[in-house]
Amino acid sequence: MAYRREGNQEQLLSSIISTVNSHKSPACARQAHRICMVSDFFYPNMGGVESHIYQLSQCLIERGHKVIVVTHAYEDRKGIRYLTNGLKVYYLPLRVMYNQSTATTLFHSLPLLRYIFIRERITIVHAHSSFSSMAHDALFHAKTMQLRTVFTDHSLFGFADVSSVLTNKLLTVTLCDTNHIICVSYTSKENTVLRAALNPEIVSVIPNAVDPTDFTPDASRRDNNTITVVVVSRLVYRKGIDLLSGIIPELCQKYPDLHFLVGGEGPKRIVLEEVRERYQLHERVRLLGALEHQEVRNVLVQGHIFLNTSLTEAFCMAIVEAASCGLQVVSTRVGGIPEVLPDDFIILCEPSVKSLCSGLEKAISQLKSGSLLSPEFMHDKVRTFYTWRNVAKRTEKVYNRVASETVLPMGKRLDRLITHCGPVTGCIFALLAMLSFLFLIFLKWLIPDDLIDTAIDATGLNGAWTRKYLRNKKKKENTTNC
Amino acid sequence: MAEERGYLAVSGARITLQCLHHSASCREFQVRCPRLQLRSLSAVTCCVWLVAYGLFVVSQNSMVLSASIFITLIGLLAYLHFVKIDQESLLIIDSLGIQMTSSYASGKENTTFIEMNQVKDVVINEAIYMQKVIYYLCILLRDPIEPHAISEVVPLFQSSKPRLDCLVEVYKSCQEILEQRKKS
């Protein structure tokens, strides 16, 4: 991106800024942080974590903080990009191993991450998602570099199978010396505290949000001669697609006017296609394939009932989006779902075909008798529940708290690792922490901090975009005054 | 009018930037990298020869020694002729275009000329380079078919890689000239 400084306008600009700043001194008294969001998952990949990072960053920028995002390269999307309002995104050329997650060696990403943290003068590193190895790496390096760390956990885990045992161990190691942890629901907090053996006091709950203006009801798009059940989710095991394949034939036999609309793509699509084939339901079960984010609303408004069959879910944005579009939600009672919506908006069932069928039948009978809430009423209610501005405000509080805390010095950190993570893992990771510390010293010798150019701020105090925004605002004010 | 100022490269090496203002519409910038140090040359030569001598002691074959001498000589010549750039210069003439010259240590010169009609803008960009994130100056070329699109990005000062303060200096000067052109 071009760096432009119009020489003669510079003074004029700074005088504008100083006048504007003096107008809103209480806002400036607030602490401005320089935040680095790290996750393997970001746009162009689609999903809940991705949109969470994007929306949260946008609202934090609006509140005057500097935010950058660090993720790995997606095909030809490498290097540095700027998104709306000057959100700077680093797409690092790291090798992707599995499921869009990079390989974790704890060392190979240190030189680049250190360079970025220093040139952007980062104060807080905020990592997202426990599936992302880059987030774990970044937390590890940030702590070695004595930066403050925050971690947001977006998913629930089990305790029993091998992969969860290993992930939980890794999580214990990364989180034992992290300053603060954010979970998306109380169930998720409980789960994380148990998994990582944490002190619950450093874990906050900040739910996800939806953009209510994106999800508005439109009753005219519905076909009122039939009943349409909408399912929008990735077609994977975790989302309970096997349950869905049991529900579809059972209910389709019972109700001849029932239609299913399934949006999403995944390995379990074949299961649904088999069911459709076997019971000759091509007319009534439509599989739409992968949906773009902006198409989701157009699919949702075509339905009367939204069905969510997830087997595990920390928060579930999909049901909030559906409720915001005015659909009656039928969902499994798993994870954080019971916390999300009030009782009259949602019908909760056990995760079994039988229970979900009876839940759907209840919704259908309510629909037929006309005792469902009106879509507009639901939308007006839901839009007040979860907004990104509120999420950003609460996250900011976490940042303020973290900024006043101290980072553990190396000796105490090693101590914490050994005492907290069990004798074997603790010692291994203490050794790794030592090695990464030595590696950092080596890097500091190779490229001293003062050889790294400070990047021009795009956002935050005196950011290039913020100044542009202020200038536009000033112009508008001037024209209205004239 | 000529002024010479010292700057640092991204790698930490000292470079000098010389700005020559030939006339109001013609400027030249020369970035000079440090010359090949006798120290590094002797270090590399010693290393190669010591390894070769070690191999000779093990294998008792004198071919190793003569081969190492040739390798050092050919390597040095190739390095001076193809790799080591002593000076990079950028000549910008308002009505004509931009000329980039890089002179190798052996005396070889490489010149590229871009016509002014093709030049859309000169900007400072960021890139991930090796294990670093660096700023670099580049020329944006206009797409001949679509006047608003960019067909190519030509990076400048590729081998010396000056730091941001030096780039800003050159950038401002270039913008002044481009600005003049836009006015006329």
TrEMBL record, chain A:
Q: According to its record, how does it sit in the membrane?
A: Single-pass membrane protein
Q: What is its EC number?
A: 2.4.1.198
Task: Give the main location.
Answer: endoplasmic reticulum
Q: Which Pfam families match?
A: Glycos_transf_1 (PF00534), PIGA (PF08288)
* Gene Ontology biological process terms, A to Z: GPI anchor biosynthetic process
Coiled-coil blocks? none
In the UniProt record, does the keyword Metal-binding occur?
no
> PIGA GPI anchor biosynthesis domain: from which residue to which, for each copy?
72-161
The catalytic activity, as recorded, is: a 1,2-diacyl-sn-glycero-3-phospho-(1D-myo-inositol) + UDP-N-acetyl-alpha-D-glucosamine = a 6-(N-acetyl-alpha-D-glucosaminyl)-1-(1,2-diacyl-sn-glycero-3-phospho)-1D-myo-inositol + UDP + H(+)
Q: Which residues cross the membrane?
A: 428-447
Q: Which residues form the Glycosyl transferase family domain?
A: 218-365
The biological pathway it contributes to is:
Glycolipid biosynthesis; glycosylphosphatidylinositol-anchor biosynthesis
- Main enzyme class: transferase
Places the protein is found: Endoplasmic reticulum membrane
Q: Which UniProt keywords apply?
A: Endoplasmic reticulum, Glycosyltransferase, GPI-anchor biosynthesis, Lipid metabolism, Membrane, Phosphoprotein, Transferase, Transmembrane, Transmembrane helix
Could you tell me which CDD domains the record lists for this protein? Answer: GT4_PIG-A-like
Q: Which SUPFAM superfamilies match?
A: UDP-Glycosyltransferase/glycogen phosphorylase
Query: What InterPro entries does UniProt report for this protein, alphabetically?
Result: Glyco_trans_1 (IPR001296), PIG-A/GPI3 (IPR039507), PIGA_GPI_anchor_biosynthesis (IPR013234)
Which GO CC terms are listed, alphabetically?
glycosylphosphatidylinositol-N-acetylglucosaminyltransferase (GPI-GnT) complex
GO molecular function terms attached to this record: phosphatidylinositol N-acetylglucosaminyltransferase activity
UniProt function note: Catalytic subunit of the glycosylphosphatidylinositol-N-acetylglucosaminyltransferase (GPI-GnT) complex that catalyzes the transfer of N-acetylglucosamine from UDP-N-acetylglucosamine to phosphatidylinositol and participates in the first step of GPI biosynthesis.
Spell out the family assignment given in the record's similarity comment. Answer: Belongs to the glycosyltransferase group 1 family. Glycosyltransferase 4 subfamily.
Q: What is this protein called?
A: Phosphatidylinositol N-acetylglucosaminyltransferase subunit A
- Naturally occurring in which organism (per UniProt): Python bivittatus (Burmese python)
Q: Which gene encodes it?
A: PIGA
Automatic annotation (TrEMBL), chain B:
Q: Where are the transmembrane segments?
A: 40-58, 64-83
Q: Give the gene that encodes this protein.
A: PIGH
Per UniProt, which keywords does this protein have? Answer: Glycosyltransferase, Membrane, Transferase, Transmembrane, Transmembrane helix
Q: What PANTHER family does the database record attribute to this sequence?
A: PHOSPHATIDYLINOSITOL N-ACETYLGLUCOSAMINYLTRANSFERASE SUBUNIT H (PTHR15231)
Q: Which InterPro entries match?
A: PIG-H, PIGH-H_dom
User: What is this protein's name?
Assistant: Phosphatidylinositol N-acetylglucosaminyltransferase subunit H isoform X1
Pfam annotation, one family: PIG-H
GO terms for molecular function, please? glycosyltransferase activity
Pathway listed: Glycolipid biosynthesis; glycosylphosphatidylinositol-anchor biosynthesis
List the record's Gene Ontology CC terms alphabetically.
Answer: glycosylphosphatidylinositol-N-acetylglucosaminyltransferase (GPI-GnT) complex
Give start and end of each Phosphatidylinositol N-acetylglucosaminyltransferase subunit H conserved domain.
Answer: 89-158
What biological processes does GO assign it? GPI anchor biosynthetic process
Q: Give the similarity note.
A: Belongs to the PIGH family.
